[in-house]
Design goal:
The chain has a single domain, classed as 2-enoyl-CoA Hydratase, Chain A, domain 1 (Alpha-Beta Complex), CATH 3.90.226. The protein is of the alpha/beta class and 228 residues long. 47% of the residues lie in helices and 18% in strands. The strands form two sheets. The chain has a six-stranded mixed sheet, with helices on both faces. Strands 4-6-8-9 form a four-stranded mixed sheet. Strand 2, helix 1 and strand 3 form a beta-alpha-beta unit. It contains ten helices and ten strands. The chain is globular and about 45 Å long.
Length: 228
């Protein structure tokens, strides 16, 4: 992997984004690395959980690399959309608990991916959570719409989607967008501790219960799989 690193610590998988110089943005090759990481997590025997984080000091992910995307031909853009939406659905339905450790800015596609996690924690002193699509003239697709609607606070989500407001960590915890906020020096440990707690559950039971809560996402993933 060239843009991320998957490590195993005490039975917990930690996927660390390492392409901070490009703001951990999505391209087709990047998304395929994510999918390979999810394959590895699902192939693991026994209980586990996945923590998704970034090594960059101020960026989690700022979404799709639009400069790259506009340079692709129509088939390339179609391929990207399919693999990106597949990633969102697979992450939301992963056969293991998931924690998004948001260490900095989570914008657009980066925020959408974080919304697909079971739990989110965020840095308290830096970084914002934002869906700027309305301001950059990129409507949500049906799949990305259903993914962001996994966030529990529908009033806050409406404002995020229709105004592009960027919430701080303190605002996110007040609005129940994230489970908690931590100083940067405590953030990774907090994410790991939460993942360890979740990994104590039988992963098949946990995943079945969670996925039954997300029937629309399961239907989307089935359609994406059938279309290949």
């Amino acid at each position: 992997m060239t843009t991320m690193n998957l490590a195993l610590k005490d039975g917990i998988h930690i996927l660390t984004l390492t392409n901070g110089d490009d703001d951990n943005r999505f391209t087709t090759p990047v998304v395929k690395e994510y999918l390979a990481a999810l394959d590895a997590v699902e192939a693991y025997k026994g209980n586990t959980a996945l923590v998704l984080t970034s090594e960059h000091e101020k960026t989690f992910s700022t979404g799709i690399n639009l400069d790259w995307l506009t340079q692709q031909d129509p088939s390339g853009r179609t391929e990207f959309l399919v693999v990106f939406e597949t990633l969102l659905c697979r992450f939301a339905l992963l056969r293991a608990p998931t924690v998004a450790c948001i260490n900095g800015n989570a914008y657009a596609g980066g925020g959408i991916l974080a919304a697909a996690a079971d739990y989110r924690i965020m840095r308290s002193d830096r970084g914002r959570f934002c869906f700027p699509e309305v301001n950059i003239n990129i409507p949500f697709t049906q799949i990305t719409n259903d993914i962001v609607h996994l966030l529990p606070n529908k009033h806050a989500l409406k404002n995020m989607m229709l105004t592009g407001v960027a919430y701080t960590g303190e605002q996110c915890v007040e609005l129940n967008i994230v489970e908690g906020i931590f100083p940067t020096e405590e953030l990774q440990a907090a994410a790991f501790d939460l993942a360890k707690t979740l990994a104590s559950k039988d992963r098949n039971t946990y995943s079945t219960i969670r996925n039954l809560m997300r029937p629309a996402i399961s239907a989307h993933l089935q359609q994406l799989t059938d279309s290949k």
